[in-house]
Amino acid sequence: HVLMPHPIGNTGGNMPHGQTAGFLGKTFDPFVLNADPSDPNFKVPDMLPPDYISAVRVDRRRSWRDAIDKAVSYFESSQDAKLMDSTFSQAYTLMSSAKAREAFELGQESQTMREKYGMNRFGQGCLLARRLIERGVRFVTINMFETVFNELTWDIHGSAPFTSISSMKDLLGPMFDNAYSSLLEDLQDHGLLDTTVVVATGEFGRTPKINPAGGRDHWPQCWTMVMAGGGIKGGRVVGSSDEIGAAPQDRPVTPAEVAATIYQALGISLEIDLPGPQGRPIRLVDHGVEPISELL
Questions:
Q1: E strands present in 99-187
Q2: Where are any strands of DSSP class E within the chain?
Q3: 25-35 exposure pattern, b = at least 16 Cβ within 10 A, e = fewer
Q4: For residue 50, cis peptide bond before it (omega within 30 degrees of 0)
Q5: Cα–Cα dist 250/241, whole Å
Q6: Whole-angstrom Cα distance, residue 186 to residue 153?
Q7: In angstroms, rounded to a whole number, what is the distance separating the alpha carbons of residues 122 and 198?
Q8: What count of other Cβ atoms lies within 10 Å of the Cβ of residue 177?
Q9: Number of helices (H), then strands (E), in the chain
Q10: Which candidate, 182, 288, 277, 194, places its Cα nearest to that of 232?
Q11: Which strands form 31-32's sheet, in the order they lie side by side?
């Protein structure tokens, strides 16, 4: 799982939930890019050691760590130690893998292709996602929201530092449309769309009425999302809202149904139980929840 460019921020200082593996453990946490793929000097910070640390020093540090590990046999038998060892091994493998570094080399793409996606953070993130999927990465998250400070985001409350509806219409909307459609076309051209589910969604909608600051506030009663690929039928519209977008008018769809649809499209059984906290099994979706049949 690769998450780019950064985790979603929050004005309260806490990272919103859903961006880590939670109770599944840190082994399944995403590799966070922490870099802007549209930056002309883009490089992934953790793929190579700092310039002042040579390959010889990296190998020496690993040897020292191995020696210390052997000396601390009691700690080595603990679950925390096993997790730490697994994480370290994965990190070292990633740093020493030319194939992994090559996947992030956007400079290998033609300028025409890069401009097709859009020379902005989201556009280049979508292009990078295609490169990662093409090379076997199973799960990619592209955030179009980092933090409300000094960033153009979908948090369109209107007053600074938030985005206004005019910025959404003139900048964010076209930026998203261009990159998302280019990603679908590119996946199709590379023979990957039928095996890749592409989901574009937020966690809530925006108020039907524009506020005095020229924006829209949080509105969890109704919103829209887009799904493509993985055998999902294109050109379908499921459900509708009322005339002002305040509430579903017909065929409302729940988040659980969306999750079930994604699992179904990926060939994942809805009957699977995950090992939850204290050994209590957690179902992927609750009993009785069905995929959105109109899309499959």
A1: 140-142
A2: 2-4, 31-32, 140-142, 197-200, 205-206, 218-219, 226-229, 240-241, 248-250, 273-275, 281-283
A3: eeeeebbbbeb
A4: no
A5: 7
A6: 25
A7: 15
A8: 11
A9: 9, 11
A10: 194
A11: 31-32, 2-4, 140-142
Angle formed by the axes of helices 79-95 and 55-71, nearest 10°: 170
Tell the burial category of 129 from Cβ atoms under 10 Å away from its Cβ (0-12, 13-18, 19+): buried
How far apart CA 241 and CA 260 sit, in angstroms, is: 22
pTM recorded for the entire structure: 0.79
Buried-exposed string 76-86: b where 16+ CB fall within 10 A, e elsewhere: eeeeeeeeeee
| Amino acid letter for position 70 | K
Q: What is the largest CA-CA distance in the chain?
A: 69
Q: Residue 88 in contact with residue 70, Cβ under 8 Å?
A: no
Nearest to 146 by CA among 32, 15, 18, 7: 7
Reading the chain (296 residues) residue by residue, the pLDDT tens digits are 989 888 877 655 567 778 888 888 888 888 888 888 888 888 887 676 666 667 667 677 777 667 666 656 555 556 666 666 666 666 666 665 677 788 889 999 999 999 999 998 899 999 999 999 999 999 999 988 755 445 567 888 887 767 788 888 888 889 999 999 999 999 999 999 999 999 999 889 999 999 999 999 999 999 999 999 999 999 999 999 999 999 999 999 999 999 999 999 999 999 989 888 888 899 999 999 999 999 99
Q: Is 199 helix (H, G, I), strand (E, B) or coil?
A: strand
**Angle of the 173-189 helix axis to the 121-134 helix axis, nearest 10:** 20
